[in-house]
Amino acid sequence: MTAAGSAGAGAGTGADAGAGGAGVAVRTEGGGVAPYRSQLPPARDGFLRLLHAEFTKLRSVGRWLLTLLAGAVVTVLVSLVSAGGSDAVTSGDGGGGGGSGAAAARVADSFRFVHRPLAGDGSITARVTDLTTGADTDAPWAKAGVIVKAGTEPGSPYVALMRTYEHGVRLQHGFEHDVAGGAVAGDAPVWLRLTREGDRLTGYVSVDEGTPANGGTPASEGVAGGGEGVAGGGGERWREVGSVSVAGLPETARAGLFVAAPETVRQERSFGSLDIGTGPSEATGVFDHVRLAGGSGNGGGDGGDAAWRDEAVGPASGPAAANGPAGGAERSGGTFTVTGSGDIGPLPPAADLTWMSLAGAQVGLIAFAALGVLFITAEYRRGMIRTTFTAAPRRGRVLVAKGAVLAAVAFAAGLAAAVVSFLVGQRALRSGGHRPPQFPEVSLTDGAVLRAVVGTGLLLALVALFALALGALLRHTAAAVTIVVVLFVLPLVLGGGLPLGAVEWLFRVTPVAGFGVQSTTPRYEQVETVCVPEDGCMPQGPWAGLGVLAVWAAVALALAVWRLRRRDA
Amino acid sequence: MAASEATIEVRDLRKHFGPVAAVDGLSFTVVPGQVTGFVGPNGAGKSTTMRIVLGLDAPDAGSALIGGLPYGALRRPLQHVGAALDAAAVHPGRRGRDHLLWLAHSHGLPAGRVDELLEQVGLAGAGRRRAGGYSLGMRQRLGIAAALLGDPPVLLFDEPVNGLDPEGIRWIRGFLRRLAAQGRAVLVSSHLMSELEDTADHLVVIGRGRLVADTPVAALLAAASDSRVALQTGARERAMTVLSAAGATVAATGRESLTVAGLPAERVAELLGAEAVPFSGLAAHRASLEEAYMELTRGEAEFAAVPEGEGPR
């Protein structure tokens, strides 16, 4: 027995090969030998060991590393090609934004403005009795209302309260901010009131019909004194739409009536062809019971009718733009009829340059998917999965460890590819004519760009993870790769051929939704833009889109774990 | 000694694949200190049994325990059981050393242990080459190295001799014997009994998923040899008549040779002498393991559709 023990002690030190002769000698009577006892220190187990083992597997197959590299390189090259092949169409009617100054942000600020000075605190009240758009135009965001603005310079601060053609009452300011103030029934007249107290402006709305009962002073929000010569002039019950604080309004601002009608956007798609049309538009608003209360800049008294000035703010637009100033205003008695074009609001970039410079991921993902599938199916194909499961019998943990290692490596490669794609893609786009102001500079450090670039790394990691799960479920390389490619590439290809509604649905529920994270164009509810998913206008927010892909990956992985535990290896 | 962790206990194991019973009520025990041959024709259920022992396949009924525990309950399995199931189960694009390295990492074993084993199995020079370029023999060695990585007291080898050249076969026989001599339980499967000659101490023979024999090799050989006598004679017909009359089973194995079963050699000589039947040679037959195996499995239709020496011609 002791002899057997010493033979055992020799193991693990390279002495096995020489132990043969001694081995025969220690055989005892009856064939009994002392059971073997290893002299190796006890091994360690745990999830970290599994991660280490799986990482060793991943890095030790040269072809897999090449696949990963290919995925990154293809991502960069395709991004570069697609960015380089896109020439900017720099047309003159870039939206009429602030061409006037360096400070001009990408905003639209063009409308018909009938105004008077408003010194200090006060309010402007008007009843909008009618809002009509031009004959052939469909302008749901045509608007007419009251506005307090720093001046007539485009881009200057303002707060506007309006009724819109199809979107009810809105309170807007700062070109980006939009508060919904409730729907308006049909052609019912709408009372609008905007009051200024220092930097704070508050909008009220009243939809009372009939003759105002209390002489124009709402019971709750009376504006004392300063009565205009206009009869009536107020609703019965005022409801607050919102209150905003605006910096930059001078002591004496301009207050008055405005009408604007943004360009109409029409997109239709029937098989194979996308039909996008934008057209000028025009709207006419009819106001009465117009009353400016407070200082008029000339002593606080009644400024008189002569004080109303009619002006077109911003560059000309609209149907008559080519022939001269758009719109106009007429006054007959207490009724103002104002016709205008243009819009007051944000002007999204004409194209999502970040999206364009990351387009290569749509092709590069195939390599990431292939790697994900191979990482598991290669083991099944050779029977190596049995070695894996004998080393780690808890199969679910094995797959999770595999997924974690794969996702981390794919993320690193995907992130690197995305950063390079963005940098070279931007350069190509700039030299292709995409220049400010129409295409503003974007930088890696911009929040949205950073989100898109990091998101691309996450996207590719999730693709690999999803592919891994499919590989584990199907145990067949070609089948799993095909499914991933179909799920990702088909919507992208079909995108050009299906009706818009179907495409949006596809981009909402299929894994392709993940590409939403690459989108950096802000979406504003109050602005209609040309929006097709292939160009980066995804139906969901960036993280929501990536979340859809993550759900796909998580569900597939959970199914794979479940299956792995039940089936024989 | 009985409660050693160096044992494999298979009890009433059953496993069906569809309507086919791959393993059908199998029970046996593999004890430490000897090489146990696990023999049966292809499809007898050897690999399935081994997979169940390793927790890869789930049995329909029964149990397979290693040192009293099911495989899944082993905390660090590679230190309890080493297995080499399929020599091809290596990614061809991975270096041999890396194949062992990931296994080592899964148990937190040092890289030095990997190099040590490459040395032991004679792959020290090939460890940095891709496994795709390995010969079958080299892959067998790599598989054996993987099995030994955790220095386990229980070892399972599925057809380890497959694809080895004669020198490799000699090497692996010695290797298996040394492992057993160290006190490990070594289970080696084969579909050819001759491969286990001079290697196995004990045999577990199965056919169609059932146990056919569970016996020490020495006893099996003795039993098979005892009953047979090889006889050389020019008077074959007369010898057959005489010996049959005395109650022996006689089979012609050549024009001038007979095999006599049922009578000891001295009695055969005595009978032939009494009847003056001439014979040129008489020897108690020393059965080869292969013959003992055939003897043992004579009744199993699957093994021998036409019993030896009793054919229709």
From TrEMBL, chain B:
Keywords: ATP-binding, Nucleotide-binding, Transport. The keyword ATP-binding applies. It comes from the Bacteria. InterPro entries: AAA+_ATPase (IPR003593), ABC_transporter-like_ATP-bd (IPR003439), ABC_transporter-like_CS (IPR017871), P-loop_NTPase (IPR027417). It holds the Pfam family ABC_tran. Residues 8-233 form the ABC transporter domain. PROSITE patterns: ABC_TRANSPORTER_1, ABC_TRANSPORTER_2. Belongs to the ABC transporter superfamily. PANTHER family: ABC TRANSPORTER, ATP-BINDING PROTEIN (PTHR43335:SF4). This is ATP-binding cassette domain-containing protein. It comes from Streptomyces synnematoformans.
